[in-house]
Specification:
The chain is α/β, with parallel strands linked by helices and 318 residues long. The protein contains eleven helices and 14 strands. It has two domains: 212 residues, Rossmann fold; 88 residues, Alpha-Beta Plaits (2-Layer Sandwich), CATH 3.30.70. The strands form three sheets. It has a six-stranded mixed β-sheet with strand order 6-7-8-3-9-10, with helices on both faces. Strands 2-1-4-5 form a four-stranded antiparallel β-sheet. The chain binds adenosine-5'-triphosphate (ATP). It comes from Mizugakiibacter sediminis.
Length: 318
């Protein structure tokens, strides 16, 4: 199905999903352009999977409007089946079918003619480095190999739009990088991708992304725009006791957010209210000697600021 050029691949307005008393997704507005790699970043339970499942037509919204590839969801979800692919962190293929048999089975579900199915499966096994493993049972593959096979199955019917829900959470760093190279190959060929992740380096690779927190969209834009739009100044604090330093700075004037990264601490502070000297002073008052230097903001800072501030604002820590 072709989509008119001027229409986004995904548009959602006021998207909401309640489970009993819990509002898992809260009045979400979203727009994903055609051909872009769009990221969903958020803490555990922030509503990423629930949103993706509603956009795919797998879960009914409690409220709101969704349009995907020009079709209204959930009303026209059936008509979208052929244009959309879906892949989750959980391996959804058959452990006791081989690497070659799994995508052939998926092809039969999509009613692909036999000869075309065989040709397509060969192409995909080669593209995702699975040809030599074709006779191996899927259940015996490594995490990275399983994800490549799952990707092959998800794109078998050449969907215009692919949803990926934390696709790399069970794979090693090198496999994660290779997997993302494959995602960009798909995007270069015109596929729109919406991918949720916990990993900052993956989010940074997206063309644009949305940060979710407790079901709400708390920031969206390109990684660059989000970093440039961060209010205040970021500081790197290096000291022997970063945890104690974090506690000492938590209530200090002008400090918006803090996050311990390895042995150091990143601090987001309001421009005029706190500079390096003021932070050093606040630390010294708690008996902590530290090196404090301004540092360029990164996506982690954006994430911490976006997901910490509302908690301070309304006092409703999850
Ligand atoms: N079927 C369900 N019934 C009741 N509550 C649910 C259901 N599905 C999700 N939730 C709740 O909705 C909230 C959002 O969950 P969701 O899985 O969408 O978050 P997530 O951001 O994908 O989390 P994670 O990163 O851990 O996968 C959570 O509090 C979760 O417990």
């Amino acid at each position: 199905m072709s989509v008119p050029d001027d229409r986004p691949a995904i548009r959602a307005r006021g998207l909401t999903r309640r489970f009993g008393a819990l509002t898992a997704v809260d009045r979400l507005d979203l727009e994903v352009r055609r051909g872009e790699v769009y990221g969903f970043l958020g803490p555990n339970g922030s509503g990423k999977s629930t949103t993706i499942r509603m956009l795919c037509g797998l879960l009914l919204p409690s409220a709101g409007d969704i349009e995907v590839l020009g079709r209204r969801i959930p009303q026209q979800a059936e008509a979208l089946k052929r244009s959309v692919g879906y892949m989750t962190q959980k391996f959804a293929l058959y452990d006791d079918l081989s690497v070659g048999e799994n995508p052939l089975f998926v092809a039969s579900v999509h009613d692909l003619p036999r000869a075309a199915a065989h040709a397509r499966v060969e192409t995909l096994l080669a593209r995702y480095w699975l040809t030599d493993l074709r006779r191996q049972l899927a259940g015996t593959l490594s995490g990275g190999q399983k994800q490549r096979l799952a990707l092959a199955a998800a794109v078998l019917h050449e969907p215009a739009l692919l949803f990926l829900d934390e696709p790399t959470s069970a794979v090693d760093p090198q496999s994660r990088r290779e997997f993302w190279d494959s995602l960009f190959e798909l995007a270069d060929a015109g596929t729109t991708l919406l991918v949720s992740t916990h990993y900052m380096d993956e989010a940074e690779r997206c063309h644009r992304l949305a940060i979710l927190d407790r079901g709400r969209l708390v920031a969206d834009g390109s990684p660059r725009a989000l970093m440039d739009g961060l209010p205040g100044q970021t500081f790197l604090v290096e000291c022997a006791a970063p945890r104690a330093a974090q506690q000492a700075l938590a209530g200090a004037p002008g400090v918006l957010a803090t996050a311990q990264i390895g042995a150091s601490l990143r601090v987001l502070a309001q421009g005029s209210a706190a500079d390096a000297a003021a932070l050093r002073h606040a630390l010294a008052a708690s008996g902590i000697g530290a090196r404090v230097e301004p540092t360029p903001p990164n996506l982690e800072d954006v994430f911490v600021a976006a997901t910490q501030r509302p908690r301070h604002a309304d006092g409703a820590a999850a």
